[in-house]
Amino acid sequence: MDLHKVVVIDDEVLAIEHLRHLIDWPSAGFVIAGETTRPTRALALIQEVKPDLIISDIKMPMLDGIELCKQVVAAGLHCRILLLTSYKEFDYVKEALKFGASGYLVKHELEPEILLRELEAIKPQIEEERERLKTQLRQLLIGLIDGNSLGEMSLGPLLESLRLVGSSLTYVMIAAGNVVPLKELGQASVFLPGLPPIDAHLLSEKVIEVFNLYSKEGQVGMVLAFQPSNSRLKLAEAQFEAVSELRRLYQEANPAEPIYAAYSSPFSEWRSLAEVHAATMERLKQRWFSGSQPVISPESRGGSGNEAARTNYEWRERLERARKNEDPEQLLQLITETFDIANQTKDAFMLEQLCDELAGLLKNERRAKKMEALTSRAENDEFDMLEWRGADGVKEGFLRLYRNTFLENSASRYTGKVREAIEFISQAYNTEISTDSIANRLGISGDHLRHLFKEETGQTLLEYITVYRMEKAKRLLRTGRYKLYEVADRVGYRSSHYFSKIFHKTTGLLPLEYAKRKEREGDE
């Protein structure tokens, strides 16, 4: 527990001695951090110690309590003042209260109980003032992260009042899970609920304050202010201890997702917070790569991004050639190779560039083929976020999407009415459709459509619809989020019993058996 600092000012030595021994100050939450019998030195002592409370005699040679109150207020010092007075000095007391004094104590009535009662009354005022100053500093720091400039404003007075001058700072970013956010595909970061205000000393005895400054897109950021240290090794140990404990607290509050924490090297200049914040956010992306630890230290570094940009440029050219040549197998091979490079070099910049490029190409390809939009498929839970964890998960996810787009969905390979039928099925598979209803939509007879479809695809139209629906059902079952009748309804079957029968006939497993098998495979 932090003890509130007290400065005692009295021109009588015995009066100071009496106060010092009157109570057990630490037990009351206070410590006498300075004292003087020389009133003219009072302000200098107060500015040096920066106490939370001043206890001063109201009437002293060359400086009375009223003048002291005026000097403290003029100096911008945030502290409470208790005046010591005798019976005949009440007029002085009334005047001093107008100028910032918090209260008074009558010397001849000063007993331990009276002093303790006064201290208990003033303690909430001290803590409220400190919280006000912390809030003011926090708002300025949030502004720095958002790109605002302090201009001519100085943080000095606030830092002095909060006793943070000279403290060593560490910036920490925390995120839940290692899902790579792909907004183009409807993927977002895992939500990370915040924690109640954290007692700094719960993290480490070296931590003075914790300032929560950032909470966006599933990530939180904060500054830890440490006591100054002359030993880099001890400071590094305190950093790791505090960040590890902070991560543990978040993990305890969010047991469903693994929690990752990245932190900065020690720094002392508060104005550099925006740069440190950006660098720590980048470092947190190391959680996307295999082998990453839950606590990511400043020494954890990935690729620089320059080599990634060059490689990505070459990869784009090769991908475009493969796409123009309509060579799906080469596309899949290029995706695998390039993601493996990003994973090996732990280059988050390269990974993000690859994902943006792949998502854009997929979007354009599907639009050209009049296929269902990726965002619509995401809304139908066909993108399970659990399958997009880290660089490896993203690679597998894109490979699945590219197979679906360039291989499995073969509408573009067919002509005329067959292609139109396949495109319609991809949009209306979850409704009651039949050969005749599709034929009517296309303006031809059912028999003619059956003949064309069988001739070009090698399977009947109803067989194609069934297989298509079963593939959609598999994806829904793998999420584990839906009841059987919900899956059936989402893929166009109004009877869950009939759906189960068709699913078993197609896959050899009942729907629930399939879901349990995939769940076991995921655990392994």
Automatic annotation (TrEMBL):
Q: Which residues form the HTH araC/xylS-type domain?
A: 419-517
The lineage's top-level taxon is: Bacteria
Origin species, per record, is Paenibacillus rhizolycopersici
4-aspartylphosphate PTM positions read 57
PANTHER family with a match to the protein in the record: ARAC-FAMILY TRANSCRIPTIONAL REGULATOR, HTH-TYPE TRANSCRIPTIONAL REGULATOR EXSA
State the Pfam families in the record: HTH_18 (PF12833), Response_reg (PF00072)
**Which keywords appear in this protein's UniProt record, sorted alphabetically?**
DNA-binding, Phosphoprotein, Transcription, Transcription regulation
- Spell out the SMART domains in the cross-references: HTH_ARAC, REC
Q: Which InterPro entries match?
A: CheY-like_superfamily, Homeodomain-like_sf, HTH_AraC, Sig_transdc_resp-reg_receiver
- Domain annotation Response regulatory: ranges: 5-122
Q: What is the lineage of its organism?
A: Bacteria, Bacillati, Bacillota, Bacilli, Bacillales
The protein's name is Response regulator
Tell me yes or no: is Phosphoprotein among this UniProt entry's keywords.
yes
